[in-house]
């Protein structure tokens, strides 16, 4: 089977975790490759996500590396059974940028989601009209077909919060995002009403950082923190001018956990946040 030309972020993550495991054991790639009978190139392809790996071979490698973290091994073993093409987001492959599909897959497999948003309402809370206005403001303008596809993907992603066993979703939103009028007054008003309704759902927490907060300065990056089945498989997704990044290094995870906790501590309570959302809607 030829190597994958474009592995998904999750396929890459499986390989990254195997590389971390091997390096922690101080094991050269050539020795790991010899265990599987394919040599160093095979291990390199597996660790880059370009080759898949069976559960049996993964467990052989974990034992060879003397890894005693059974919860991590079980979580990685479960990932080996995931096949590209099975997720609903695959219908958009070749239509939308791969990172957008990787985000949908990340949310689907998360056991918890924490987001910080500065200028936009979180995507999982957006109405269709609001999402269309946000994507419609992209420079340069998107082709109509891609605009429609981006909106459709965002709407389908919201099913993550409606399914059985949905991850807990904690959103910290700056007041600036509530006052942005994407799409005009009617669209903004409908969006605020929808956000307030979503904040009442079980398993959902919406908290607002008010303009009056004294502790917010300097921490202005939007982010999504996806909680994995074990802490080692947590992932951070951030957006920047150059595109989307998925981070999983221990230092990054610690940093963004701390960032979320710091900003959440400066936010209003859930009840106070709902009241502020209502007050802002009345001002429109």
TrEMBL record:
SMART domains: HTH_XRE. One of its GO terms (molecular function) is DNA binding. It holds the Pfam family HTH_31. Residues 18-72 form the HTH cro/C1-type domain. This is XRE family transcriptional regulator.
